Amino acid sequence: MTVSVQAVADRAGVSISTVSRALRGVPGISQTTRKRVRDAAVELGYVASPSASRLATGRTRTVAVVVPLLTKWFFAEVIAAAGRVLSREGYDVLLTELSTVELRAGFFASPRLHGRSDGALVVAMQLGSEELASLEAQGQVLALVGSESAGASSVRVEDRIGGRAAARHLINLGHERIAFVGLRAGPGSTLGGVPPAERLLGYREALAEAGFPSDPGLEHVVENTVDAGAAAMAALLTAEEPPTALVAASDEIAFGAMATLRGAGLSVPDDFSIVGYDNHELAGVVGLTTMDHGVAEQGRLAAEALVAALAGAPAAVGRIEPRLVVRGSTAPPRRLRAGSR
Amino acid sequence: MTVSVQAVADRAGVSISTVSRALRGVPGISQTTRKRVRDAAVELGYVASPSASRLATGRTRTVAVVVPLLTKWFFAEVIAAAGRVLSREGYDVLLTELSTVELRAGFFASPRLHGRSDGALVVAMQLGSEELASLEAQGQVLALVGSESAGASSVRVEDRIGGRAAARHLINLGHERIAFVGLRAGPGSTLGGVPPAERLLGYREALAEAGFPSDPGLEHVVENTVDAGAAAMAALLTAEEPPTALVAASDEIAFGAMATLRGAGLSVPDDFSIVGYDNHELAGVVGLTTMDHGVAEQGRLAAEALVAALAGAPAAVGRIEPRLVVRGSTAPPRRLRAGSR
DNA sequence: CTGAAAGCGCTTACAG
DNA sequence: CTGAAAGCGCTTACAG
């Protein structure tokens, strides 16, 4: 049924050792022999048994990609970008979604990756020290996106700078009452929460620099869903002195906020300005001005760092600086515009 | 470093055969022995080497999930749902994205899954007979979503019924000029194309039943992107006698169409009605009436059929009937509404 | 440059 | 119910 090294060896008239060496491209094999073996392998449709190679070498040449959720645009984008470099580099990708606290606990309670992958690319999960220790005890080389750990590769997004730039853009347009809706992990969520916090810090920084008084009533922290964004916007509209603009910590929050405004008969950006965060694939359609934090690039950089580390390179940390993408959801506030009624 | 069967055997005072049997739950082991072995394994933190088990048994207990694209909501949703049942059933999931024709050709040219997975769950790719043969030669048990093949499990979505229901809804509201924007694989795309065609057939069927003349000018076929949807809508608006409603073969097409209408100053649904297809996670925010074809369920059903087939059950074909989800993007045409100016 | 042999860590008839 | 031994299909020192 299945073609083994022995079959190739017979056909090429060499030993199995030679077949193994010839096919893996190790040096110390004559050109003619190598060619003969390769031809035989091709003719027979031979491909080494992964299980056998893995057992013999102790290396799996597979990377586990672990995410809290697969169904959010952000994660799919990161995984896709990472997966492309991993498979280009000859690694299999073992997909692991830890979408509930039970799943997460179970995953770290036993050495589930041991012998299955050589490394793990962990996306947007703040790993506890026991969790990190568990992964390391399982012999995993690590690459983190959205979190950091000494000795592990990671990609760091300058979210404070991003949050600051978003708020700055609105300030520059003339807005003075600017709200912020940030992200919080929901109950039962396995998402980490540090980067969003940095976005909030950047927002506060910009306001302070502009000399605006800090106003806790302008800051909301909600789950990362469209509905939560819609609800937060609604709450903001009930304030004594409502804001004229919003920095949303994600595009999904922004989408929800836009829906609420539309429902209230308010126009974006004529009556209200919004800056999102992500540059979601659908941000363009709705004309959302947003912070692009190179989502695909996060995945790519992490995968590249992991591949390098698996080849013996020291852990590396990548850096991404978010940049503003101006579309139609931001404009000067009504009071500053000529011709406004 | 790594704990082997031998270590567990020593600690439990039995042979390695007994350890293996006790841990895998095979019958013919005394309760006391089994417990002793299990305790020893836990104390030692032992977990069998996957490579070794795979080599010995010839089974990998992993399933390859192959998709044309990871970054579309549809695929992420299907994979997530499938992945949850697969890992619940103890299978590893090997992720394979074939996003270009080169990648696809390379994948099928060599037995890339051989010895890596016991089965493959293939999403939305019309596999050619050579491709199917390749997979079978690699010993893969198959489950297909969005395509069918004799002997393979699959889940069939009644897209003709769905397309018909969408058009019907508009007809019932009183529309008489109803356009259709369908899906086509773009250049270099690896997407299959049969299900979308069925949606078109259903649409035509509904129009014929209503006695409307068929009008090719009302039918467009484009790539499945928001931009293509926007462009198609724009083209429709230039017709001599423009339609008053649209059946979009995907929600992304519908999103694009809505953007075009908004840009043209037309109101949905006051001036124009739209029915989408998918029930995309963001369909709710924009108030899109759409056909829900149980995307997550497609993944779940396929995975369940695959797991069953891997356990020896005969191939099964699941069936999903799309259902209309009415939101705010559809209404009677202007001419039928009282109080319209 | 090439081959014989040991070893990777399991599973599974075969005996008892 | 339990154990000794062969075998799964590779890789890799070790000799030559």
Automatic annotation (TrEMBL), chains A, B:
SMART domains: HTH_LACI. Transmembrane segments: none annotated. Coiled coil: none annotated. PROSITE patterns: HTH_LACI_2. Residues 3-57 form the HTH lacI-type domain. SUPFAM superfamilies: lambda repressor-like DNA-binding domains, Periplasmic binding protein-like I. Keywords: DNA-binding, Transcription, Transcription regulation. GO terms for molecular function: DNA-binding transcription factor activity; transcription cis-regulatory region binding. This is DNA-binding LacI/PurR family transcriptional regulator.
